[in-house]
TrEMBL record:
Species this chain originates from: Skermanella aerolata
InterPro entries on file: Anti-sigma_ChrR, Anti_sigma_zinc_sf, ChrR-like_cupin_dom, RmlC-like_jellyroll, RmlC_Cupin_sf
Name listed for the protein in its UniProt record: Anti-sigma factor
One Pfam family here: Cupin_7
SUPFAM superfamilies to which the protein is assigned, alphabetical: RmlC-like cupins
Length: 225
């Protein structure tokens, strides 16, 4: 089954232009590994970008450009996120719960990951990625038990969620393997995992969640998701 929920065109354009941070780029690249439709969109964006670059007239280089370049040689080099091969819609790198490029970050065996309990039926595991420009970006695996409902919450920033296995419902939308969800400050929701099995997701957030239920909001000073 192919994904039915996709990143926005703006996100795909940012990815094609190489302007996403490492964590967001990881989520988008992993979605591309599972979604031939979005792979084609990114390929078109990249082709368009290449054509525009060829059409641009060369500009004069300021005399201080070389000095500025030499001054940046000691800066850390960002780690590029691998782009899935668009010619291969499914192979051994996309089959199984952990497709590439995520597999390159966490390996294939989910049981060797150090899971941390968040609440009953919900566990998470941090993924080592760069923090991005804001310094607050986090990438995590989230494992939710069958039928478990995540407490109602909103977002102080943005949240990307990619389903790797199982599924969940959020309002009137159903998310399955490969589906991509984007939430922001306007979102106030309480997703619930499907009853027929565990739900495994990759999430990327750039600010803490904020509980909004009548009683749960009292826990905000003590909880950091």
């Amino acid at each position: 089954m192919l994904p039915v929920h996709h990143p926005s065109l703006e996100l795909l354009l940012d990815y094609a232009a190489g302007s996403t941070g490492e964590a967001a780029g990881l989520a988008l690249a992993t979605h591309l590994a599972l979604c031939p439709e979005c792979r084609e969109v990114v390929a078109q964006f990249e082709s368009l970008g290449g054509a525009l670059l060829e059409a641009i007239e060369p500009a004069a280089v300021p005399s201080e450009a070389l000095d500025n370049l030499l001054a940046r040689l000691d800066e850390p080099v960002p780690v590029p996120v691998p782009v899935p091969d668009r010619r291969s819609p499914a192979d051994d790198a996309t089959l199984g719960p952990v497709p590439q490029p995520l597999r390159g970050y966490i390996g294939q065996d989910l049981e060797t990951i150090r899971w941390k309990r968040v609440m009953r039926g919900v566990e998470q595991a941090d993924i080592a990625v760069g923090r991005g420009r804001t310094g607050n970006v986090r990438a995590r695996l989230l494992r939710i038990g069958p039928g478990v409902r995540v407490p109602r919450h909103t977002h102080a920033g943005t949240e990307m969620t990619l389903v790797l296995a199982g599924g969940f419902s959020d309002g009137d939308k159903q998310y399955q393997r490969g589906d991509f969800s984007f939430c922001d400050r306007e979102t106030d929701h309480s997703p619930v995992a499907d009853d027929d099995g565990e739900c495994l997701c990759l999430t990327v957030i750039d600010a803490p969640l904020r509980l909004t239920g009548p009683l749960m909001r009292l826990l905000n000073p003590f909880i950091r998701f």
